[in-house]
Amino acid sequence: MYAGPSVRAAAEQVRAGGLDDRFQPYQYRAARRSGDAFWLRLTPAGPLARVGVPVPIVHKGRHLQVDGHAAGSGPSAPLVTAASCA
Fold first, then answer.
1. What is the dihedral of CA 13, 67, 28, 84, to 10 degrees?
2. Would you state the pLDDT for residue 3?
3. C-alpha closest to that of 67 among 53, 54, 75, 56
4. Using one digit for the tens of pLDDT, what is the confidence trace for 45-79?
5. DSSP characters over 19-30
6. Could you give the percent of the chain with pLDDT greater than 70?
7. What is the number of domains present in the chain?
8. Residue 9 predicted with pLDDT over 60
9. 21 lies in which domain range?
10. pLDDT tens readout for residues 69-78
C-alpha cells in the first residue's frame, strides 16, 4: 500500500516503479482512517498460466472505488472494467 502525500499525482511514478521502496503492507484501518486515495500492488500468488488472458479479480467494499493500471512506463490510462456486480 502506498498512501504518500501526492498519491493522486503519482500514477506515472507508481507504474514505472519509482515509488517501489515506499510501499508497505496493506493496513485496512489506516486506509479507512485516511479517507484519501491510496495505491495497492496486486502480486500473483504463483506463476500466471500461459493460456488465456490473466485478469485481476478485486472484491471491494461500498466505500471504495477501484481503478486499475498496468505496470510499466509510458502514459497511464486506467484499465477497462470488464464486469461489475452490484
1. -160
2. 75
3. 56
4. 888 777 877 777 777 777 777 777 777 766 767 77
5. TGGG-----HHH
6. 85
7. 1
8. no
9. 1-86
10. 777 766 767 7
Interior angle at CA 81, CA 75 and CA 86, nearest 5: 145
Q: How far is residue 86 from each of residues 27, 32, 61, 83, measured CA to CA in Å?
A: 25, 21, 11, 10
Q: What are phi and psi of 39, to 5 degrees?
A: -105, 140
Indicate the residue type of 54.
P
pLDDT at residue 7, as a whole number: 63
Q: Are 26 and 40 in contact (CB under 8 A)?
A: yes
What is the number of other CB atoms lying within 10 angstroms of the CB of residue 40? 13
